[in-house]
Amino acid sequence: MKWKNRNLRELAHLVCGDPAPDGVTYFRYRSSSYLTEFFEDCDLDFVHDGSTRWSWVADRLTDVLAQPQVSPTIPPDSFIRIIRALLDRADTQPGDPTREKALSKLNAVLAREGWEAFYDELMIGQLRHLATNTVAQIANPHRPMTSAELVRKEQLTAYLNSCSEDQLIEDVLLPLFRQLGFHRVTAAGHKDKALEYGKDIWMKYTLPTLHVIYFGIQVKKGKLDSSGVSKAGSANIAEIYNQVHMMLGHEIFDSELSRRVLVDHAFIVAGGEITKQARNWIGNKLDAAKRSQIMFMDREDIINLYTVTNLALPKSTGTPSPSDDTFDLDIPF
Description:
- The chain is of the alpha/beta class.
- It is 37% helix and 15% strand.
- Helix 1 packs across helix 3 (53-65).
- Residues 192-196 and 317-333 have low confidence and may be disordered.
């Protein structure tokens, strides 16, 4: 990420807490030692060298923005931590008890670079990419979760126990993959079961090099097993594996490019558990092929990703529909 010098200077003044021309500031004033402390709180080892504060901070922000980023719509993790520290609710100033004025001042700078800051439901400062509406998150699903995240995890688990397969797709998977940076994510054709191995139903992801790769997703709400006769609510992993291969071999039409393309990668997504035997079976198949074209996720993966990306929980909508136990080629996007 490369910002204009003007915006870097203004953001640096906010970090320093320097008064505006009218003598008012809504940010905590930070002297030399407190600037060092601020960056330490952001897990950065920057130590102020005694030079002009705002100029030094602007240089450090430039260093942070030069760090690697996951995608063009997600800034470096260190920058996200800086924004969160800058919006800490404990740093309220006279005349701004809710920090709304501080948020407005910060957004006046961020908007010129295509970003917007806001407070989430836990009153933690977050950063949103305006063009794609993607919320920038330090999303490590394997880190220890906070008590609030554990509560959200339990609520999402309860929802997955009662939702239908269509609700799993519409209310959980589509928002999740959009938040993770995929685009053109649609599930049209799932409800009417009129899928032709993924035709016109797909999603794509733009690499930092601007190359585009296409993904398909095969979804089952229940458990995936490897038994010869699956029980109600379960599906055989071999059947899904074969259908995913059919999906990979079927062309889709990309209207943005006006040409047909093939799906590059496929996800097998289970709203329930993928049993140990099923994992071993598909693991052996993928290892024998020496390919990473097919990937799989189970309920725990979905819940962890959904929780750490801080998406709004879906509303409870009752019991599954009677068609959930039918086996279809679900959502190759």
